[in-house]
């Protein structure tokens, strides 16, 4: 029987996550969404009910079994996403991993709770996807890649085999990261960058080949 799923957030990314869940009616039925804005709605699913703010979901989950997934994405959203999840620590809420039916996940890959894998993504042998990460549309995660918790991989990204992406990292649209590279936690890889060497914690790299433009202290 499909499980009841609640989307947290009502922005543009939430629409994509909702449609990914709808692609698997055997697993999920959309119960509604929560958002801090009481006037919010998912424009592509206008009939999806508003269930209240994030805290209201804690009360709902105490009375009925719900699964939830973050519908918040984009540059600099990782810390917000993490704070939201931490508000539910100790509650009865379950975190769903959503895999679009048009994505391919190797049977030897590992997908942690809360991860979202969107249409056209490929996750190859022995890859590990950390908690609440996002693998966006058409991205390729090669064999033995480790994607840290809260990391966001934008559409069209290619990650070479054996690469490690630290927690809270952000990989921009169409970036390419060669095999066996380490992108440390809280790092940012710019749109279209070609990364040929390690990126330090908090670092930002852009260009072809990618070059450092600074370190963000976190």
Task: Describe the fold and architecture.
Strand 1 (3-8), helix 1 (12-22) and strand 2 form a beta-alpha-beta unit. With 218 residues, the chain is an alpha/beta fold. It starts with a strand and ends with a strand. It is globular, with a radius of gyration of 17 Å. The protein has 3 helices and 23 strands. It has an 8-stranded mixed beta sheet with strand order 5-8-11-14-17-20-22-23, with helices on one face. It has a 6-stranded parallel beta sheet with strand order 6-9-12-15-18-21, with no helix packed on it. It has helices spanning 12-22, 54-63, 78-87; strands at 3-8, 28-34, 67-70, 94-95, 98-99, 104-105, 110-111, 116-117, 122-123, 128-129, 134-135, 140-141, 146-147, 152-153, 158-159, 164-165, 170-171, 176-177, 182-183, 188-189, 194-195, 203-206, 211-215. The chain has 2 domains: 3-95, Rossmann fold (3-Layer(aba) Sandwich); 99-202, Hexapeptide repeat proteins (UDP N-Acetylglucosamine Acyltransferase, domain 1, 3 Solenoid).
